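**Discrete fold encoding**
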Amino acid sequence: MKKSSTPIIKHIPDFLDYCEVEKGLSDKTQLNYSRYLQKFIQWLKNTKKDNHLPHELTAEDIWAYRLYLSRYADKKGHSLKKVTQNYYLIALRALLGYFIAKDVVSIPPDKIALPKDAKREKTVKFLNLDQVEKLLLAPDTKTAQGLRDRAILESLFSTGLRIAELVALNREQLTNVKDKKDLEIGIIGKGSHPRTVYFSERAFSWIKKYLEARQDKEKPLFIHFRAREDSDSRLTPRSIERLVKKYSVLAGIPIFTTPHTLRHSYATDLLNQGVDLRSIQEFLGHQNIVTTQIYTHVTNKRLRDIHRQFHSGKKLKE
């Protein structure tokens, strides 16, 4: 381990490069780390510690920064939620982890304990099959745009793709294989991790109908029909979000519905059909099974009802 003569602030660009190259983190995660560390930089400047070297950061400094986050208020008087404070601390802890990885002397990352009340359980919002059906039937498939939107909705529910993964699809990935009932393709998912995704016969049939209605030779699978010739025709994540919201309103289903809701619905449906958690982890492209375990509580009530109905304990004499 060596002491660095470079101030903490000037290490941050190298830390972000490390996140990309060595950790393989997504652009969004890198962006979040950069944004959350800006507040730490501001705190260092406010406390005249912007020239602090990594080994000069102390446990007292960490405590002072936590107090700063706890007492922080913006111009409108809004304070930071506990969960948001958690994100700032996670980013700082990642920076300290980078120092350790690069053999730079600094305070250990585990000296930053996360607030207990910030460790809230994620809640999963999903649609039941009746609601999914209403959503899928909402587009007007008499138009090319309606066919596209139906193909998008069917693909989201059939594959569990993340919105960025869906947007990145190119038409050649699906047109190269024409006779499979269940089409499978390889993608590069979150964190640059490759995985296989599977399209049902139903979803693939709508994609084929949509592609047959296209008169262009554009590379993207899902395009914006009104795009100018000099602009990118590929639909953006925001466009996908808007069309899902539009059809959720038309279908009369919950207003919380987003593309990610369909991913949750896909995983929940598999779980309800008896698919094991490890398989669902593979389908979703989760690197850690802990991430997939957010779905387990969804079926708790169903399992409880099955237990009550079939467990033989109630038949035993007391």
User: Anything to note?
Assistant: The first strand starts at residue 183 and ends at 188. The radius of gyration is 24 Å. The longest helix spans residues 27-46.
